[in-house]
Amino acid sequence: MPEGDSVYRQCKMLREALKGQVLESSDLRVPTLATTDLSGRTVMDVVPRGKHILIRLSAAPNADELRSGAEPLTLHSHLMMDGTWRVFERAGTSRDSGERAASASSGTSPAVRGRRGRQPYRRYASVRSRAEARTPLSADVSIGQGSHTIRAILRTATVDAIGFDVKDVRLVPTRLEDQELVGYLGPDILGPDWDVDEALRRLRAQPDRAIGTALMDQRNLAGIGNVYRVEVLFMTRTNPWAPAGSIPDAKLVEIVKLAHKLLNLNRDRPLRSTVGHPATGRPLFWAYGHYDQPCRRCGTRLKRGEIDDAAPSITEPRDPAAVQHLRQIAWCPRCQGADS
Ligand SMILES: [Zn+2]
To answer: What is the CATH number of domain 4-182?
Structure first.
């Protein structure tokens, strides 16, 4: 499940592959951007902001041929529950050809074979985790006939960066990033502007909200998803439904600092671990996903709970789609039974 750490890794992969490269073509498969042509623009940077991905592009090189505005643009996307960006090397690039020639003598091919034995792409070197590589490549990815989940393709001379199932694909002038895209976010846990005091201030500003809900509200602090919520609340023995205002200051500081520590620990790991040592094979958690299993601290059976992430805040009316925001959490009724 994409959270701040996985978005950070995705941006790192995209930055390594695209930064400084000129786009040969683009294919944005959302209705509002279907005719947009980003070719000729240079990728200036790829920046994570909470759980948002910002791909910053230069101004178009030739103002006379503009269809999407002359100024620098930012391509926004969000992974939500199951989106992912992947980078594939294009066949026939010099690096690919060289490696293929080298492997010919050993009898193996580094290329990923398409359905008809073609070798359209080789997995980009940075795509290492199973999750990131789980969708099989097919020969027709390149011409857009094969995968209905593709929402964006950015092509350079050497790679295709492809956004599968990415959500909220939008293009805005870079100067309006804050205004239109991410200005409402609280301090970014993995960002250069991380500000623990500001995050605490925002959490305290709504004392009646359940802490479990408040931690997920990206307006308070950006980057936490359901996994880290469950883990941080378990590790700090905090009841998920305790009103933020009932939690002693020292405990609230502990919660926020632990979230910061865990996301930073995991930001460069392909598999998450919150238990103190790196995970191999599968992610390692104290409580997340461990419903009905004994608490690793006290032995009590962990309970499955539901928490409503659309619960009304003080400043905004209830989201009419609230039912879609019910999330499953695991918690220990003994360790986390008290309100603080
Ligand atoms: Zn327990």
So the answer is: 3.20.190.10
Q: Report the candidate in 43, 45, 56 with the shortest Cα–Cα distance to residue 12.
A: 45
CA distances to 9, 13, 88, 125, 333 from 16, rounded to whole Å, are 11, 5, 12, 10, 45
**Residue 139: is its pLDDT beyond 60?**
no
**Which residue among 151, 229, 267, 327 is the active-site one?**
327
Residues in the chain: 340
Ligand 1: distance of its center to the CA of 233 in Å?
Answer: 12
**CB-based contacts of 249: which residues, under 8 Å, 6+ apart?**
none
Residue ranges per structural domain of the chain: 4-182, 196-331
Based on the residue annotation, tell me whether 136 is a catalytic residue of this protein. no
Q: Which residues place a Cβ less than 5 A from the ion ligand 1?
A: 295, 297-298, 300, 332, 334-335
What value does the CA radius of gyration of the chain take, rounded to a whole number of Å? 22
Instruction: Clarify whether 327 is annotated catalytic.
Output: yes
pLDDT at 147 over 50: yes
Residue 294 a catalytic site member:
no
Task: Read off the pLDDT of each residue in 123-135 and give the average, rounded to a whole number.
Answer: 41
Active-site residue (options: 9, 49, 51, 155): 51
Edge-to-edge order in the sheet of strand 43-49: 43-49, 52-57, 73-78, 167-173
> Does 2 qualify as catalytic in the annotation?
yes
**196-331: CATH topology:** Helicase, Ruva Protein; domain 3 (1.10.8)
